[in-house]
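Researcher: We plan to redesign the surface later, but first we want a full-length starting point. Tokens attached.
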């Protein structure tokens, strides 16, 4: 344990004293909060969590220490980090990577007096522990909006005669996507982005290349270049480094990033970025813990509560009229008159979905008796992604729809 403590202390990224207020208005107490991240601030994914946790703690007027431990792999070191945080007085421990979940559950069972929460996880409802929680957001709506922005750019490129023969596959324009792993979270993200592009430019196909890592700048840059060479006119990503955006900037290919703006580093190609704003959840989690209130087993953030957000539009690569179009589509999504995964808008093996037994329990097997296809009051049939009322917060859209091709590194 002493050896591990030395490692932890060496990897603590920040121990912050936030303000001097001694009390919360509702409870008059204070508390130490712990955040475990897979990488660190060099990862856009982890930086998004780190920034949000700092903001949430500051907003709540905490005078206790915020412990942030970075570089924690998806193995038993996560359990050890969580245990050490508890030993140092943390009453809330949050971990940010999918593979952290089983080790956080282990800690939750051992320390029932501490609230443990986890992003992107699938097991909270199955575990049914009062002190273990999953949280995510309807980021597929943010991805869709980012796809709309990309579609607006693609339409402008068509109008300007900037689409080359190499960008075409038959009558369709090629776009590209750098993905980390072929998980539901990634598939949900790139499918919603693609559907957003197609909502503006229907004759579009997409090529996807997986890197096999959440954060590998070299692999992500190589993947982006491979997609560019395969004809992609615009590229987006679900990977956590600057590899893909920097490759796009060098090649002059418009890019949609993730978890943060690349306007400064990629001024000529950056269009927009979608992100989960974790501040609303962190404030909810911390305040409910301080007040002794129940924390939801599964929580999903939305456009409505500000958890799904877009960064500012790029100053060079963004097409005229994009801001207005995004406001129009956002209003439709919030009103429920538009569904990202409207089953009439895509096919799987040439067929429109009428039922689908998704993996809800997180065991990588279809759950018999579950049907995630719903019909709204207007008769629209749609895939009910991240439906926390009936299913769970983390994505379970794991389908391969027509029009998307996964490449290998040899392509």
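Model: Full-length starting sequence:
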């Amino acid at each position: 344990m002493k050896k591990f403590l030395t490692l932890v202390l060496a990897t603590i990224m920040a121990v912050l004293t936030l303000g001097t207020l001694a009390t919360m208005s509702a409870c008059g107490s204070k508390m130490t909060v712990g955040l475990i991240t897979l990488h660190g601030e060099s990862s856009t994914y982890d930086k998004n969590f780190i920034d949000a946790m700092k903001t949430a703690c500051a907003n709540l007027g905490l005078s206790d220490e915020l412990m942030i431990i970075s570089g924690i792999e998806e193995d038993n070191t996560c359990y050890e980090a969580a245990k050490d945080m508890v030993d140092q007085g943390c009453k809330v421990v949050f971990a940010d990577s999918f593979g952290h979940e089983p080790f956080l559950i282990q800690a939750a069972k051992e320390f029932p007096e501490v609230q443990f929460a986890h992003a992107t996880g699938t097991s909270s409802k199955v575990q049914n522990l009062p002190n273990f929680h999953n949280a995510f957001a309807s980021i597929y709506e943010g991805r869709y909006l980012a796809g709309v922005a990309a579609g607006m750019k693609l339409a402008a490129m068509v109008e300007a005669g900037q689409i080359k023969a190499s960008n075409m596959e038959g009558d369709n324009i090629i776009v590209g996507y750098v993905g980390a792993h072929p998980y539901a979270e990634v598939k949900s993200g790139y499918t919603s982005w693609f559907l957003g592009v197609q909502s503006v430019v229907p004759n579009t196909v997409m090529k996807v290349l997986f890197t096999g890592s959440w954060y590998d700048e070299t692999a992500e840059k190589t993947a982006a270049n491979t997609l560019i060479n395969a004809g992609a006119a615009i590229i987006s990503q679900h990977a956590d480094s600057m590899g893909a955006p920097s490759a796009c900037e060098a090649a002059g290919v418009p890019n949609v990033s993730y978890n943060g703006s690349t306007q400064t580093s990629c001024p000529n190609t950056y269009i927009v970025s979608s992100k989960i704003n974790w501040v609303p959840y962190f404030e909810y989690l911390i305040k409910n813990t301080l007040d002794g209130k129940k924390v939801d087993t599964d929580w999903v953030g939305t456009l409505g509560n500000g958890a799904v957000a877009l960064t500012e539009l790029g100053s060079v690569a963004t097409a005229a009229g994009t801001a207005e179009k995004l406001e129009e589509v956002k209003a439709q999504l919030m009103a429920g008159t538009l569904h990202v995964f409207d089953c009439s808008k895509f096919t799987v093996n040439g067929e429109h979905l009428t039922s689908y037994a998704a993996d809800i329990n997180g065991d990588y097997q279809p759950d018999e008796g579950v049907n995630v296809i719903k019909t709204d009051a207007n008769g629209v049939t749609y895939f009910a992604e991240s439906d926390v009322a009936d299913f769970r917060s983390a994505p379970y859209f794991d389908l391969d729809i027509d029009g998307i091709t996964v490449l290998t590194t040899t392509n």
